[in-house]
Design brief:
It is a single chain. This protein is of the alpha/beta class and 168 residues long. The chain has three helices and five strands; from the N terminus they run αβββαβαβ. The radius of gyration is 34 Å and the shape is rod-shaped.
Length: 168
C-alpha cells in the first residue's frame, strides 16, 4: 500500500487513536476540590418527630404494654385501678396472647428516651405472634382528660403559682 499524500505532495497526518485524558483529570480534580470544600458546610438533617395535636380516642379497654427508659417491659389492662405487671421481653407475646380477647387492641406506651429500635422490636414480636390490632399510645397536646392512672402533672418548683391569685 502506498502512503496517503495530499495534493501538495506532503504525506498526510495520521489519525491518533488515543484520548488525551489530561483535561478530564483536571476537571475531575476541580470537582473533587469543590465537593471537599462544600461537604463540611452541609449540616446533617435533624429529625424532629411530630407531636400529635389530636389523636383518635383509645378504645374502651385495650391491653397496654409499657416500655420504660431502661427497656424494662410491663403490661396491664388499660382500666381504672389496674397496675402494671412486669414481664420479660421474651415472654411478652405469649403473656399478651393469653390475656387478649378477640378484637381487643394492644397499645404500646414507651418512654420518650427509649430507643426507637426497642419499640419497633416489641411491635414486631407482637405482630409475628398474631396480635393484629396494635397501636402506639401518645400524649395529646392540650389534653383535657388525663389517661387512667396517670400521675398529676406538677409545676416546677420555680414556676409561679397562680392558684392563689384573686380575680378582679
Amino acid at each position: 500500500m502506498s502512503s496517503v499524500r495530499s495534493s501538495s505532495g506532503r504525506p498526510g497526518r495520521r489519525l491518533k487513536n488515543e484520548i488525551n485524558v489530561v483535561p478530564y483529570i483536571d476537571v475531575m480534580l476541580v470537582l473533587l476540590v469543590i465537593f471537599m470544600v462544600t461537604a463540611p458546610l452541609i449540616t446533617p438533617g435533624v429529625i424532629e418527630l411530630p407531636s400529635v395535636g389530636q389523636a383518635s380516642n383509645v378504645p374502651a379497654k385495650p391491653l397496654e404494654v409499657q416500655i420504660e427508659e431502661d427497656s424494662k417491659v410491663s403490661w396491664r389492662l388499660r382500666d381504672g385501678g389496674a397496675t402494671f405487671i412486669p414481664v420479660e421481653r421474651s415472654a411478652l407475646a405469649q403473656t399478651i396472647l393469653s390475656e387478649l380477647k378477640p378484637d381487643q387492641p394492644v397499645v404500646i406506651a414507651a418512654d420518650g428516651k427509649v430507643p426507637y429500635e426497642v419499640v419497633m422490636k416489641v411491635m414486631d414480636d407482637l405482630r409475628k405472634n398474631g396480635v393484629t390490632k396494635l397501636g402506639l399510645l401518645v400524649d395529646q397536646k392540650g389534653e383535657s382528660a388525663p389517661s387512667p392512672n396517670a400521675s398529676p402533672k406538677r409545676a416546677p418548683a420555680n414556676a409561679p403559682n397562680n392558684s392563689n391569685a384573686t380575680k378582679k
